[in-house]
Amino acid sequence: MAYGEESWSVGKTTIQGKPVIYKFMNELPEKSIRESLNWLTVVSWKYDGSIRNGMPLKEVNKSMIKLEDGLEKIEGRGKLYFDVYSATGNNLKEFVFYIADRERFMANFNVALNGHPTYPIEVNFYKDAEWADFTKLHADFDNAANKALKSDTDKTGAL
Description:
Blueprint: E1 8-15, E2 18-25, H1 31-36, E3 39-46, H2 58-71, E4 81-89, E5 92-99, H3 102-112, E6 121-127, H4 132-156
Antiparallel strand pairs: 1-2, 2-4, 3-5, 3-6, 4-5
């Protein structure tokens, strides 16, 4: 799969009793790309979602969309980094990437967000050469889908 051809899914889960919405790539990139992107990079935005069941207020969400628009302009997709999923809910928004080089990624990150307001975000890096985090996310949603499919089959006898 070339990196311009990927498809994405949206899934919902519950964490600590709050809904969390994930948007994620359906498939892993080619092995050669994965092998060059060893750093799991998480851009986190904590917010107060107490009056919206863990979801951001409308104004906060608008700012998050502006941030996301800026992140889409980071140079080097496919070689320097790959964005793989985002999650919103339980008082937290996360944008998750796999990257090759922290300094180059952050330089391109800052260029892409030049002119944006200062966002209340944190950027953390974790060594994950096996892409275990993303693989687990896929497994979790595959297991949930299989359970739902089994439940529907059990109720109806067939689909």
